Amino acid sequence: xxxxxxxxxxxxxxxxxxxxxxxxxxxxxxxxxxxxxxxxxxxxxxxxxxxxxxxxxxxxxxxxxxxxxxxxxxxxxxxxxxxxxxxxxxxxxxxxxxxxxxxxxxxxxxxxxxxxxxxxxxxxxxxxxxxxxxxxxxxxxxxxxxxxxxxxxxxxxxxxxxxxxxxxxxxxxxxxxxxxxxxxxxxxxxxxxxxxxxxxxxxxxxxxxxxxxxxxxxxxxxxxxxxxxxxxxxxxxxxxxxxxxxxxxxxxxxxxxxxx
Length: 260
What we know:
two-stranded parallel sheet, alpha+beta
């Protein structure tokens, strides 16, 4: 028998809200015209040495966050080194950032992977800033994105666990391997459960963490309609350009950071 949600969440845990008894049965009024497509979805972050959320002076500081931990970029929930993930669908995007010494932020962005909006904007397929050359890596980051459910091992997932998993730079190898694991199952993407951990990588004097993704299980029958419904919602929003994931400076593609 599944545990009640309040039994799965510790009181006072960062990013979690335990509903008091007197609000049980509340009708959730005030959201009549608000759909999931009107929200910015959190992102599943992988903490590195330079991740803003591990710095106490950062507005998004997450208490207890260590390198190699997974976390929710909006709620601040720290999943630790292991998180269970059910992907719903896949799409690709591009982002070019302003340099940090000039204030940071997005300089150019492509929601469909082909048409950039900003500086320089235009056709991403012919843009020199999006391609590798012998001297340097691209100035524009390529992302593999997966709206997904993410939860702690042993917990019961629900709509509140919806976020976006985004891979870039060195993590794209892990994403491609994950795509293969999904395709081998030969079932809808949202029927699979995968275990995410992380591994320390080192080169010269630099070190960073990369995702480690393994098969875990199938979505249980009692949750199948839930995940299928969430897939239909986010698929529709993504097709119509209404799906947006949280973007912050931890998405920046600096050399050897290996961040997601």
